[in-house]
Amino acid sequence: MKLIGSHASPYVRKTRIVMAEKKIDYEYIVENPWEASSKVADYNPLGKIPVLVMEDGGAVFDSRVIVEYIDTVNPVNKLIPASGRARVEVRCWEALADGICDAAISARLESNRPKNLQSADSIQRNLGKVNQGLAAAARGLGDKLWCSANAFSLADVATGVALGYLDFRFPQIEWKKTYPNLAKLADKLATRPSFIDTLPKG
Predict the structure, then answer these.
(1) Which of 6, 23, 138, 168 sits between 20 and 30 A of 36, alpha carbons compared?
(2) Which of the residues in the chain have pLDDT under 50?
(3) Containing domain of residue 32, as a range?
């Protein structure tokens, strides 16, 4: 299998961490979907990463779809519960974490536009969503060791990736001081090889 992505994308990082935790071998192809020469759209008509290219040339795209598929490929280190409320809880954590990333990326893209074209309201609205998401994550985690069911799961992967993306792109957001329980979780995740090997850059 081949994974097409970039070092800066939190969705690609989430996928890479899951593949590492599941001990899946793959070829990692770094590509910038924003460049005119990008071939990403050859596999994903939306031109978005990550894209998982299968052995037969077929493609799976959207990080949530990819990680769900990868979790079924290898029984090692199951990250998504099979069914019921436990499964829904983990997927809700993933949706919350991805939502934090969505809002942070939107704020970053807007702030990268020329000053005279930027919408301060849009930036603040999206940063407000980030803060609301962090508050919800902190409440959900409470004093537990892990986000869901007291066991490492996709919930922790997604949450850790979102927190890492904030550190990478928005170091001015002092979430560690505001939410020490999230900081404790992030510190614990930071020692896992899958997180160390996929640190964002670019």
Answers:
(1) 168
(2) none
(3) 2-73
